[in-house]
Amino acid sequence: MKKVKLIRTFQEGLDNFRRNGWLSFATVSVLAISLYIISVTAILGVTANIVLQNIQDKINVSVYFNPDVEENAILEIKNKLVGYQEIKSIEYVSKDQALEQFKKLGDNNPSISQALEELGDNPLLASLVIKANSPDQYDIITKSISGSTFSDSVSRIDFEENRMAIGRLTSIINLVEKIGLTLGIVFVFIGILITFNAIRLTMYAHKQEFEIMRLVGASNLYIRMPFIFEGIFYGISSAIIVMIALLATSKFLAPITEGSISGGDIFSFCLSHFFIIFFSLLLSGVLLGTISGFIAIRRYLKI
Amino acid sequence: MIRFENVSKIYPGDFSALEDINISIEQGEFVSIVGHSGSGKSTLLKLVYAEEQPTTGTVYFNDRPLDAIKIKHLPFYRRNIGTVFQDFKLLPQKTAYENVAYALEVSEGSLEEIQELVPEILDLVGMGDKMEKYPRQLSGGEQQKVCLARAFVRKPLIIIADEPTGNLDPNSTMEIMQLLLKINSMGTTVLLASHNKSIVDKINRRVIELEKGRIIRDNAKGKYAV
User: Fold this and answer.
1) Which of A216, A283, B103, B177 has its CA 20 to 30 A from that of B114?
2) B111 located within any domain
């Protein structure tokens, strides 16, 4: 396509967009609503994932060793365990470190520190804190530790106490993921459908103009280009609107989500991912706008 | 210039709009096509600007059969033809100037050409002082003048006018007819479909009368009715 045609059809698209004020407003609104639904779904999905990830990260089992087991022996066991593919990380907590952590808990509770002073000696056990790659692997890990050669050195494993909680959490996580995915697909589908119909109506409003343009001798491409540009303008405008709406929404929701996402709340999440979110909005808005336009206009260009 | 050879047009549902049409129109002629509503006038014109294809027979434009033109080349063919309609068909979001300029833009006229030709042609039809008005701000007669300007701005070989005065008052009707005659006097063929008896009688040019899709009369200097 020649440059002069490109410039003219661009100008044409811009003029259409400006002069059909009401129609453009309606189309942009619908497109913005669809994009908003889609992006809220996506952001909720991503946040839910992060939250779940955080919760999963907090799950662990501690293997406590008898007081007479040497530190070297424990570290040796640790090195053996590192090779397990189910295990994500192992941390050695010595008796002294355990005491430190316990004292920290006691900062707000004077009776704990008092009790420790009474005892005089450090009553706590050294332990290995194990994190699995996924919550359902804790069962296997604890079983294999109980059945291992060093099981005599192990005082106790705290998995049994957490078993119920971990099990329930696992099923909740699976459920949330399933529901989220289904809802996401449904909303994306609804969004695309609404946009396509809105643009089809917009094209219908231009129906007579297509006929006129053909009679005046415009080629199909020349007729189509302005509407493609119009679709791009729809996409850009709605992306900007939705970005603002998203920031406002996340600002509003920020207090609820405080602390559940690493690095703050959902608002700071949106801010720190501003460009990727805005770019995705632009891309999907422009794609939705132009592809719907392209399909909708086709039926009016048959000669 | 335009030749119909045994042309028939049957619309879906077995409605026969034209039957066995044989006519020949030369460059520079002014031809009025008359007949009742539904007699096939519009269909005959549509075959010329290739909006419809004949069911049987062939339409030739400068000895070239129209059915040989590929669909994607139709826009180029249409640039030889200016069209004017009863319902004007102006683009509502464009000013008079832009409507006329559009015809040049689609055929890749240069900016200088557009800036020179459009005001000139709008002056010619007497709309020079209303170039920046939108169609809704113009009267029917004024809109039709803009249409004529748009049809003529590319200096087409032929102008097809389908009931151009159907919606106009007698004054505007006379103005439009005079413009058509003026355009014709510059060498452009004019093909006019009309059932306005007085104007057809007044111009005293070739008249083709259609009845139920057949030519029943073709007079070199005819009246609306015999």
Assistant:
1) B177
2) yes
Domain assignment of residue A165, yes or no: no
CB contact under 8 A, B92 and A303: no
Nearest CA in chain A to B51: A303
| CA angle, residues B210, B60, B162, in degrees to nearest 5 | 40
ipTM summary value: 0.83
Burial B174-212 (b: 16+ CB within 10 A, else e): bbbbebbeebbeeebbbbbbbbbeebbeebebbbbbbee
Which of B91, B93, B105 is the closest to A8 by Cβ? Answer: B105
The number of distinct structural domains making up chain A is: 2
Task: Please say which residue of A126, A160, A194 terminates a domain.
Answer: A160
In a domain, B38, yes or no: no
Cβ <8 Å between B75 and A19:
no
The residue of chain B nearest to residue A222, with distances taken between CA atoms, is B106
A297 and A175 in a common domain: yes
Q: Domain check: are A44 and A177 in the same one?
A: yes
Q: What is the pLDDT of residues A252-297, one digit of tens each?
A: 877 776 666 666 677 887 888 889 889 999 998 899 888 888 888 8
Question: Per the structure, how many domains does chain B have?
Answer: 1
**Which chain B residues contact residue A300 at CB under 8 A?**
none
Encode pLDDT of A193-239 as tens digits: 887 888 888 888 888 888 888 888 888 888 888 888 988 999 999 99
Strand partners, B23: B4
By three-state DSSP, how is residue A165 classified?
helix
CB pairs under 8 A between A and B: 57
Residue-number span of the structural domain to which A268 is assigned: 3-55+170-301
Interface test with B, best of A1, A17, A216, A227 (most B CBs within 10 A): A216
A65: left (phi over 0), alpha (psi -120 to 50) or beta: beta
Q: Are the beta carbons of A16 and B93 separated by less than 8 Å?
A: yes
- CA-nearest of B39, B43, B47 to B3 is B47
Residue range B79-132, pLDDT digits in tens: 899 999 999 999 988 999 999 999 998 888 888 999 999 999 999 999 999 999
CA distance B23 to B19: 12
